Amino acid sequence: MAAQDAIPFPVYVVDATTLKILAVNTAMRKLAGAGIGDTCHSRIYGQDTRCIHCPLEEMVANRKRNGRGKIVFEHFNEANDRWYQMEETLIPWHDGQMAKYSIAVDITALKEAQNALVEAHAELTLKSRQLERLVVTDQMTGLRNRRFLDQTFRSEVERANRYGTTLTVMIGDVDGFKLINDQHGHPVGDTVLIQMANILRDNIRQMDILGRWGGEEFAVICPETSLEGATKLAEKLRSIVAEHELPQVGHKTMSFGVTIYRPGEAVTELIRRADQYLYKAKENGRNRVEFG
């Protein structure tokens, strides 16, 4: 293979029937120590039998079907832990036998670069998702924040208008929260908010959307829910909160205002009405649910 010795890539020719090497160039001899008479699978690939990746049968079938006896594929050689792009062609040999002519181009650096790029993209995607979560998450309670709730209010109102479904909203407020901060300090107040958030999160339905509305207020958006259903849920939450004993502060309560979306009204009007019922609950003694 004098002409092939000038090729910088490993080149070898094997008998298509016996898989014995018929010729090798200098690059292949240096790479694998392969010589004429060796089987390609044992000398080049370190296999006792024909390699699983060997495309000979496919090449022969293609040649019979459409006259094409050439194939290009990528292969990882376990014998030297390198990636190669293989270009293999069926050719007639001097003795009339069919032979497989193979050129192996080392693409390990390319594969490593591709893998590094995939990993970098995956890491970037993960960080992007983490950032997205941070943008819409209340850092203290872990609930959705006001920004997320504002977006969800708009999208749920649009959905209710489009499909004619019901939509109810409740806003809950921790009763006497300022007194907690004044008597026990803001760190204890923060702990109370976290515990209240956990109670609410553990007791809403899967379809409900809970978030921290601001300060000691929480909002629950209830898609496809009647006013009666949302009011029952608010009463359930109120009761569970009242029965729960919190470390350092004992039993604390929440008041809730509940209202239903009226077709065609603005989001601001829906929220304003929920606030009005919340204030009514406060005025009527706290630890209660007002609705309408």
Structural key phrases:
292 residues, alpha+beta, Beta-Lactamase, Alpha-Beta Plaits, 5-stranded antiparallel sheet, 5-stranded mixed sheet, 9 helices, elongated
As a percent range, the share of strand residues is 15-25%
CATH architecture of the largest domain: 2-Layer Sandwich
Structural class: alpha+beta
CATH T-level fold name of the largest domain:
Alpha-Beta Plaits
CATH superfamily of the largest domain: Reverse transcriptase/Diguanylate cyclase domain
CATH top level class name of the largest domain:
Alpha Beta
What's the topology here?
Elements (H helix, E strand, L loop, with lengths): L10 E5 L5 E4 L1 H7 L7 H4 L12 H11 L3 E8 L4 E11 L5 E9 L1 H28 L10 H18 L3 E8 L2 H8 L1 H18 L5 E6 L2 E7 L3 H17 L1 E2 L3 E2 L2 E7 L6 H17 L5 E3 L1
Parallel strand pairs: 11-12
Antiparallel strand pairs: 1-2, 1-5, 3-4, 4-5, 6-8, 6-11, 7-8, 9-10
